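Good morning C.,

I know you're traveling, so I'll keep this short. The sequence:
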Amino acid sequence: VQLVESGGGSVQTGGSLRLSCEVSGSRYNRYCMGWFRQRQGNEREGVAATGADGSRHYADSLKGRFTISQDNAKNTVYLQMNSLEPEDTAMYYCAAGSGWSLLPHRYNFWGQGTQVTVS
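The tokens, ready to paste straight into the viewer:
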């Protein structure tokens, strides 16, 4: 399974970005998908995830600002990020696993990451 993130960049405080993660190499709908981020000096943390039943799950601190969605026809999962703050600056990763979780170790496959910088 290969995952490729895109859509990162630099944005001003209060701005928005939409990250994309395209999945290839296997049946996309076999996996639950998650978005994670790693801020400098911190451990990787869960941002959002989708369940096999289409449910969506978010880190409590990010509810209301971030939205995870999927386009199954495109084998792509998105992360819409609104009202961005400098504290959101991080490398963002998508991941695929057999069950949803906000814990990184529950995922088997990872993308290379895309950098988001908010200033």
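Safe travels,
E.
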